[in-house]
Amino acid sequence: MISITNECEYDVVCVGGGIAALQAAIAAAEEGARVIVVDKSHPRRSGSGATGCDHFGCYLPEVHGDDMGVIAREILNSQTGTCHDPILTRRFLEESAAMVHLWDSWGIPMKPKGFYEFKGHAFPTRPRAFLHYDGRQQKPVLYKKAKEHGVAFLSHHPVVDFVFDDEGHVSGVLALNIRTDVPEFSLIRGKTVILATGVATRLYSSTTTPGMLFNIAYCPSCTGTGISLAWRHAFNMLNMEIPYIHAGPKHFARCGKASFIGVARYPDGSPVGPFITRPDREYGDVTLDVSHRILTEALCDGRGPIFVDCAGAEAAWLDEMKEALHWEGVAAMTDHMETEHIDLAADAIEFMQYEPHIQGRGIEINIDGETSVPNVYAAGDIVGNFRVGVAGAAVYGQICGKNAAKRSCTVAAPASLDQEALEQSRHHCSRIYERRQAANAATWREANIALQTVMTSYAAVPPYRVRSARILTIGLHYLRDLRKRFDKELSAANPHELMRALEVYELLDCGEAIMHAALERKETRGNHVRSDYPLTNPLLGNKFLVLKNEAGTVHATWREKWN
User: In the structure, what pLDDT confidence band is assigned to residue 358 with cuts at 50, 70 and 90?
Assistant: First the structure.
């Protein structure tokens, strides 16, 4: 059995090291709480915002005027607004300006040209809700600020489970130390816990380069830790059946679509969408925000491929665009363009639709960031009823941090922990490591690819791919079979491989949640297409499907959106 070699106790435990976790940690520390950030990587450069971002959704009265509702409508109708409770959107917008000013004062350039500039992710003539900023150093700045506030850090420690007191209340987390030659556990007691573990990637086969698990647009080490924990421990889960799909340059999987100022065109030069006919530095071409699906459809029906064409843009605009891509954190792509002598003024860039991942789907929170499980909060991309990218992670991280710190003042440290539950968690990890020399041992890569194959085949997404009760039921059967195989054969030769093996289990939990939710939603809506229920039910348009997994029994209910 892997030993627990380190125990510590804090008021607030932040799980994850991305934007939401760091902002939550700073806010909690400002309230006087003793705070620790537990991260599987190192929070100075971890998560999907590790190397930058260049769009920050927000409402600035000094730019937008007094009517916040105008920007709320733009956010709710954007690609990030699909699964929002509007009351959370309004709370976010009310506090977004303060976050912009705070970040700028900390040294994250929110007006790198000397003024607030809103551009991209917008329709021509409509208000623009996304502030253009330089996010290259956002993570080092937040990490430094957290250290200044006395936040403790436990890096290279992926969290494997909650720990509970004798009454079944969440009382901290169990984390795996992957810095040592032999795996060890750290037990972190906490009065409150904030889950901020980011997107879930590597669940579906890569559409860019199948078989290359890490050539994906988001952080490949984000594998749904928080969603897995929530699914296993009966949290309310939302919108898992409606996948999110991003798009970007073909084969070079990177975000930054809105940084490109060119026109989406077919090979004959005709525009794909109705919005612009020449490059536009302020709006870009919102066509690929409106519908990623057209990128795949055009290839399958022969109209494509589709290119983003910057020809005709002023030289200064192109320089701005390259700079914006650096702000976005995709310098590897711009360096490649320079090495290969790709001239954006003459060479159009082919775009494609990427594989699905879990972002803005997952854990239900209330307006204060608390989940359906007392004393546990969630922020960032693992939240199922709110998402505005890095801005949403920062603002709701701040909200969660403040509220978790205040709650911790009312929570007594548990006299004792549930030792049986703790031993089960330790045993699950230990048996994988103890199997490292078994004759029939399987690697985490084999397991991950097997899971991707099942998800891509049986929980498919459009275009030209549909779901049905028959397909989903068989898919769930295969997932159960995979779990049995993992339990018998999955192995790890060292702590790093053990972390990867546990990630595959997390993704398996995510896959089960998706299939159960997809079975329950008996209609077609967005990227959830049912061949046996082809109509979109207007009576469900203002409702969310809520799933809760209680000891293997899945309960489904519907609720109205919180307006």
Answer: very high
CA count, 13 A, side-chain hemisphere, 142: 35
Quick check: 381 and 360 in contact, CB under 8 A? yes
Specify whether the CB–CB gap between 193 and 174 falls below 8 A: no
Dist. CA 217–CA 257, nearest whole Å: 11
Does residue 97 carry a pLDDT above 90? yes
Alpha-carbon distances of 100 from 64, 93, 130, 197, 258, rounded to whole Å = 14, 11, 12, 23, 20
**Mean pLDDT of all residues belonging to the chain:** 95
Dihedrals φ, ψ of 168, to 5°? 85, 10
Both tokens assigned to 195: 């889950």
277-to-246, 263, 268, 336, 505 alpha-carbon distances in Å: 23, 6, 14, 27, 47
- Read off the DSSP letter of residue 118: B
- Residue 255 has a pLDDT of 83
Rounded CA-CA distance 294/300 in Å is: 10
Contact 165, 171 (CB under 8 A): yes
Q: What is the DSSP letter of 53?
A: -
For residue 406, the tally of other CB atoms under 10 A from its CB is: 15
| Cα angle: 311, vertex 316, 322; to 5 degrees | 75
Residue 437 has pLDDT above 90, yes or no: no
Q: Indicate if the alpha-carbon torsion angle 267, 270, 274, 276 is positive or negative.
A: positive
197-226 exposure pattern, b = at least 16 Cβ within 10 A, e = fewer: bbbbbbbbbbbbeeeebeebbbbbbbbbbb
Mean pLDDT confidence for 118-129: 90
Phi, psi of 274 (to 5 degrees): -95, 5
Band (pLDDT 50/70/90 cuts) for residue 264 is: very high
* pTM recorded for the entire structure: 0.96
User: 236: pLDDT confidence band, cut at 50, 70 and 90?
Assistant: very high
Asked if pLDDT for residue 295 goes beyond 90, the answer is yes
Q: Is the peptide bond before 538 cis (omega within 30 degrees of 0)?
A: no
CB 102 within 8 Å of CB 95: no
Say if residues 491 and 432 touch (Cβ distance below 8 Å).
yes
Helix (H) or strand (E) holding 354: strand 349-357
Helix or strand or coil: residue 183? coil
Sorted by sequence, the CB contacts under 8 Å of residue 468 that are 6+ apart come out as: 530, 531, 532
* pLDDT on residue 433: 96
Which backbone phi and psi does 176 adopt, to 5 degrees?
Answer: -95, 125
Strand stretches in 29-169, DSSP E: 35-38, 55-57, 130-132, 152-154, 159-164
Spatial contact of 90 and 68, defined as CB atoms under 8 Å apart: yes
* Residue at token pair 């939401």: 20
> Which residues, listed in sequence order, are joined to residue 130 by a DSSP beta bridge?
57
